[in-house]
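Researcher: We're teaching a course module on how sequence relates to structure. For the next exercise, students receive a sequence and then see the predicted structure as C-alpha cells, so they can try to spot secondary structure elements on their own. Here is the exercise chain.
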Amino acid sequence: MSVKVNGLDKALADLDKKGDKVIAAVKEKISDVATDIEIQAGAAAPSSYRIGDYVKDLKFIRQKINKDFFENGLLCKVGLDVPSQGEQWEAWMEFGTGLSAQQILSGAQYTPEIRAQARNFFRNGKGRIIGQPYLFPAFFRNTANLVQEMEKEINDKIK
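Model: And here is the predicted structure for the students to work with:
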C-alpha cells in the first residue's frame, strides 16, 4: 500500500533550496567575521617595541595574520604562526611575559584553552615584555554575539 501526498515533492525541493540558502548564509557570516578579525587584529598589531634605547621592528606580525577555511567554508581559523623556539614576538606581544602575561591572562574572557595556548610560550615567568594584545581582543569583539547573529541569518533564510 502506498500513500501519495500532493505537493510533497515540491515541499522537499523547497526545503533543499532553503537548506542551500542557510548554508550559504552561515558560510558568509563566518567569512565576514573572520575577515573582520583579520583586519582588526592587523590594525591593532604592534609595529615596534622599545627595550631601553633599542627599538624592535615588529611590522612582520601584522603581515603574518591570516585566515584559513576548512570544512567547505563552515570553519575558519584566524591567526599566525609563531616559531617554536627563539624569539616569539608574535606570542609575547599577544600575551605579554611575566607579570604582564599574568595580568592579561587573568581576564575572564580568556578561556582555559587560550591560557593553555599561552603556556606554550612560557619560559621562566620573569619576562618583562608588556603585552599589547591584538588578536584575541579582535576575536572577542567579533564573536561576542556570533550565535545570535547566526540564528538570525538562519531564521531569515528559512522564512
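Model: If you want an answer key for the exercise: Helices lie at 8-44, 59-64, 89-95, 98-105, 112-119, 135-143, 146-158. Residues 8-158 form one domain.
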